[in-house]
Design a protein that fits this description.
Elements: H1 3-19, E1 36-44, E2 47-57, H2 62-66, E3 70-83, E4 92-104, E5 114-125, E6 129-130, E7 134-135, E8 140-152, E9 158-168, E10 179-189
Length: 191
């Protein structure tokens, strides 16, 4: 198991353990999800990822999904990928993405501040190569993300996640090296 995966697993366990201690609103229920500024950091395949974005709750089908513990969300990010191969022709690229997410929360109780989410979205890259061997072939990419997280702080308005992200062109053009990395986010409410 790679060092990055071991670290991500350790952080996920820590986040889930802390989730049991997250605060609730005065009536024992978490408040409605606010829009958040999202700070992202990640690493994989000798590439560091640093990003800034935003996440919003989506009103579409929210009431129908809520009975199953599901929340629709939308994320938009701008990230810089920094390659670690010193002799590479291109060591940096920009990644802009928009991703709808479906977030699931356990039922009421001490774990209600925790969540899991999955998202499938679209990425636009400034370059199609990074490092010496990572060739993504197309600027347009698909992205899949799986995350575990929890809400914390004043009225549960902040959030932290650990995630695994895969970015690939889905076979549109070869070579299709793709890029998979693990990382973490911190969400800070706008209001």
């Amino acid at each position: 198991m790679s060092k990055v995966v071991r670290i991500a697993a350790w952080v996920a366990g820590l986040l889930l353990a802390l989730a049991g201690h997250s605060s609730m609103a005065g009536d024992g229920q978490p408040e409605a999800e606010p829009a958040r500024l999202v700070l992202t950091g990640g690493y994989g395949h000798k590439i560091a990822v640093y990003g800034l974005g935003a996440g919003w709750p989506l009103p579409f089908a929210a009431e129908a999904l809520a009975r199953y513990g599901l929340e629709p969300r939308l994320g938009a990010d701008l990230a810089q990928w920094q390659g670690r191969d010193h002799d590479a022709a291109n060591r940096t690229l920009w990644d802009a993405d928009i991703t709808p997410y479906l977030r699931w929360r356990p039922g009421e109780g001490s774990w209600h501040g925790a969540f899991a989410e999955i998202g499938i979205g679209f990425h636009l890259l400034s370059h199609t190569t990074i490092n010496e061997s990572r060739d993504l072939s197309t600027a347009f990419q698909f992205g899949e993300r799986l995350a575990l997280g929890f809400n914390f702080g004043d009225r549960n308005r902040y959030e932290a996640t650990v995630f695994i992200q895969h970015v690939s062109n889905g076979g549109i053009k070869e070579p299709n090296n793709g890029f998979t990395y693990s990382g973490a986010t911190i969400g800070i409410p706008f209001d």
